[in-house]
Amino acid sequence: MTMATTRTRIARLAVTGLATTGAAAAALTLVPTNAQAAEMPQVHASVVKASHTTATKAGSGNNLDGWIKQSLAIMKAKGIPGSYDGLKRNIMRESGGNPNAQNNWDINAKNGVPSKGLLQVISPTFNAYHVSGTAKNITDPVANITAAANYAAHRYGSIDNVNSAY
Any transmembrane segments, and where (predicted)? Predict the structure, then answer.
C-alpha cells in the first residue's frame, strides 16, 4: 500500500468512520483503563539490561527495520512477547513508519493527550508501560515500540494479537 493510499484511507476514516464505527473504535491509541493501570505488573530491571546503544552496535540500523530489531532484542530480554511481523504490521497501520507521527484529531488529542510515535501511544500509557533500558522519550522509536508491545502484552497477550485500532 502506498503512502498516498494510506493517507486517503485515514482521511476517509476520519470523515466517515466516526459516524459508522464510533469514536472509540476509530481512535488510534493505546490507553489502559484506570483499573488496568493500577493492576499492571511492573517490569523490573533485574533482567539483562538491553539498551538502544547496545542494539545499534549489534548491527541494527537507524531505520524502521533496525528499530524493530532493537525493540525485539529488548523485548526478548524482558520477556515481552511479539514478533517482527506483528510489530511492523501495527506500525504501518498506526503511523506509516513515521516515528514523529502525532494524532491531533481524536478524543485523546481533544483532551490534550495526543497519541504519538510509531505505535501511536499516549503519554499516560507510555509512562505506565515504559520499559527500562529504553529512552524516556515517547517519540524515541525503540522506546515507543517497546512500551506499546509491553502494553499490548498485558492487554491482548501480544502485539501479534492486535489487528486493528487498539
Answer: none
Question: Which segments in the chain show pLDDT lower than 70?
Answer: 1-60, 165-166
pTM of the model: 0.67
72/59 Cα distance (integer angstroms):
13
What residue numbers bound the domain in which 147 lies?
Answer: 62-159
Cα Rg of the chain, angstroms: 15
The predicted pLDDT at position 41 comes to 40
- pLDDT (tens digit, 9 = 90+) per residue, 51-71? 344 444 444 689 999 999 999
Determine, yes or no, domain membership for 129: yes
Quick one: pLDDT at residue 164? 78
Contact call for residues 146 and 71 (beta carbons, < 8 A): yes
- In single-letter form, the type of residue at position 153 comes to A
Q: What is the domain count for the chain?
A: 1
Q: Residue 102, SS3? A: strand
* SS3 assignment, position 35: helix
* 142, part of any domain: yes
What CATH number should be reported for the domain holding residue 94? 1.10.530.10
Residue 4 lies in a domain: no
What SS3 state is found at 113? coil
